[in-house]
Amino acid sequence: MFYVGAVLTAKGLYTFQQTLEAFSLITFSVAFSGALLGYVPAVSKAARAALDLLRLLRLDKDTAESRGTDRYPIDGAPAIAFERVDFAYPSRPDALVLRDLSFVVRAGESVAIVGASGSGKSSVVALIQRLFEPSHGRITLDGHDLGATDVRFLRDHVAVVSQTPVLFDDSVEANVLCALAWPRLD
Question: What is the pTM of this model?
Answer without folding.
Answer: 0.53
